[in-house]
Amino acid sequence: DQQVKQNSPSLSVQEGRISILNCDYTNSMFDYFLWYKKYPAEGPTFLISISSIKDKNEDGRFTVFLNKSAKHLSLHIVPSQPGDSAVYFCAASGSGGGADGLTFGKGTHLIIQP
Amino acid sequence: NAGVMQNPRHLVRRRGQEARLRCSPMKGHSHVYWYRQLPEEGLKFMVYLQKENIIDESGMPKERFSAEFPKEGPSILRIQQVVRGDSAAYFCASTPGVWTEAFFGQGTRLTVV
Fold it and tell me: Coil, strand or helix: which one is B54?
């Protein structure tokens, strides 16, 4: 049973436009959400996070939005750049933020087209 | 400050052999986590360790798999009598404490032939 779902396996966006990656979760005990970015043959790198007490967190070109009632979060990247092409994993935790039992989605492969 | 180091990067084992995967956490980090990524899947939590203690091994298969994080040296994930289904990328992550984001290593890609 998948508790964190990323329903789009891939997403293609033109350079300079906005990329929106979506993530849904089912476990209401999750209270901390993270996005990781992964290049081929490398480990995931942390991108941005959000606590359930917030509905938005912004860091440069990256913004994460959380809709608790819908159990949905999204990552916005604007403007999209070629180096953003990677697999993006949404992850959730019920322990306040540590990696203890982080639950990951299957990932969305973002392709930025020139 | 070196990141999380995993070795080897690639490991090929025949069915029935043992696989040992090593993870050195970032300097100052005492919490280590192991994750497995099967083809076309997300990362699945396996085990969470602190120095000399297993805190949570709820994601680890009950047989053939074991993990340790000794007082000195790297964390080791050991898989005995490997089978083809063990072929996957194994990632290690570390944190200085529970309430921080995890930093991942580059992973070990295990192939069982």
Answer: strand
B39 CB within 8 Å of a chain A CB: no
Percent of chain A scoring above 70 in pLDDT: 93
φ, ψ (nearest 5 deg) of residue A93: -135, 145
SS3 A82: helix
**Residues facing A38 on adjacent strands:** A87
**Is B95 within 8 Å of chain A by CB?**
yes
**Segment A9-54, tens digit of pLDDT:** 999 999 999 999 999 999 888 888 999 999 987 899 999 999 999 9
Q: How close B78 gets to chain A, by Cα (Å)?
A: 19
Beta pairing partners, B2: none
Residue B75 contacts residue B25 (beta carbons within 8 Å): yes
Strand partners, B61: none
Distance of CA B50 to the CA centre of its chain: 13
A21 exposure class (CB count in 10 Å sphere: 0-12, 13-18, 19+) = buried
